[in-house]
Predict the structure.
Amino acid sequence: MQRAISTYLFRHAVLGVHLLDQIAAAGIEQVEIYCERTHFDYTNPNHVREIAGWFSDSRVRLHSLHAPLSRDPQETTHHAVVSIAFLERQRRQESMDEIKRAIELAEQVPFRYLVVHMGVPGEEFDLRKFDAALTSLEHLCLFAGQRGVEILVENIPNDLSSPARLLEFFRHTHLREMKICFDTGHAQLDGDVPEALSLLKSRIAAVHLHDTGGAWDDHRAPFEGVIPWNDLIPKLARAVPDTAWVREVRGEELKDPKPEQLARLFDRFEAIKSEPRA
């Protein structure tokens, strides 16, 4: 199992060497950077150089970036929302430009995946939005591929990106080789994690691990919500044994939001995987 965490844990703090050093000291092997400008300002050359320099001197690998969800460095406003599924061409182009700014980090430090959302939480289905997302993804895949990065679409709680809708999207478009970042908390909010895993397992290239109380997307630590982890972990291990399992936990949900607290979960997961199954 590849030990990886998302800097979403620290998203209310500025990402710097001191936080990355904590991650390395906890034995984490790979990192996903959460691209929110107040956390990691991918538009600031000095901030980019600092982060790139740390990875160049570290054994920890930059596994992926989570694409920005807003263009506003202070807060998410209606006009600042980033979405590849906007029907309005100008807003869609502005969103793609923002995502491309994040992808450009690969020119200084290589990473494998960029995780994107299709639409926003709670968005209603519209076949035209599939076409809009297709246009965006064609453009972004070309831009990312030129920099050695693969785009992954994440299942999120809306009517465009549920597991079944994603499969419909792939059938509707010609992006039949596109892979998915499978999010456990989001799958639970959509109904059933094992069922979602069964639907999507052939397309999963990365996993976001977090729990939920079942009412909203609260990004709890595993075993702190309603997901049946003792049942899910062996199924994940069989379905996607070689993918990175990225802990994407909300820091304010933890009493002590430190990487070593999440790192201990890896040992618990390994123990569950090793238990004999009936």
Notes: The mean pLDDT is 92.
